[in-house]
Design brief:
CATH superfamily of the largest domain: Transcription elongation factor, GreA/GreB, N-terminal domain
CATH architecture of the largest domain: Orthogonal Bundle
CATH topology of the largest domain: Helix Hairpins
Helix content: 25-40%
Strand order of the largest sheet: 5-4-3-7-6
Number of strands: 7
Number of domains: 2
Radius of gyration: 22 Å
Length: 157
């Protein structure tokens, strides 16, 4: 993260706003309703439902605060539209020169990174190695096991 804020794609920013709205609205109302129902059950000292709902409320409020902080620090960064060079927001296909295995990644801000969804943080070593490079370039990325040689097969915006 830079001093200016955390880079995020416009789509990531929209998803962050939507998640915060969901938590601040329907999720808060649902927990408030659970607390009210639990209170109606009587003695709060030994009311497990009440205590669980209050714990869930505390977790929700913490998550809301974290998301609000991320939103405050987020800087929507335009995705690269240059198909000839890897940049922020580019979707790339890489082939491991040794194993032949291919992987597709979209370069996103650190907060959006999701390896399972194919979203690679701009701060990741692989992303750092390919930024500014072109199709056909082979980059070397050190990993704990070995140095990986990756060839850029395609670049899309």
């Amino acid at each position: 993260m830079t001093d200016l804020g955390e880079s995020i794609t416009p789509e990531g920013l929209a998803a962050l706003k939507a998640e915060l709205e969901e938590l601040e609205g329907p999720a808060r109302r649902e927990i408030a309703a659970r607390i009210m129902r639990a209170r109606e059950l009587g003695d709060l000292k030994e009311n497990a439902e009440y205590h669980q709902a209050k714990d869930d409320q505390a977790h929700l409020e913490t998550k809301i605060q974290l998301l609000a902080d991320r939103l405050r620090n987020a800087v929507a960064t335009e995705v690269s539209t240059d198909d000839g060079q890897v940049g922020f927001g580019s979707t790339i296909t890489l082939r491991d020169a040794d194993t032949g295995k291919e992987q597709q990644w979209t370069i996103v801000g650190a907060a959006e990174a999701d390896v399972v969804a194919g979203k690679l943080s701009i701060e990741a070593p692989v992303a750092q190695a390919v930024i500014g490079r072109a199709v056909g370039d082979v980059v070397t990325v050190p990993t704990p096991r070995r140095e990986r040689r990756l060839e850029i097969l395609s670049i899309g915006a």
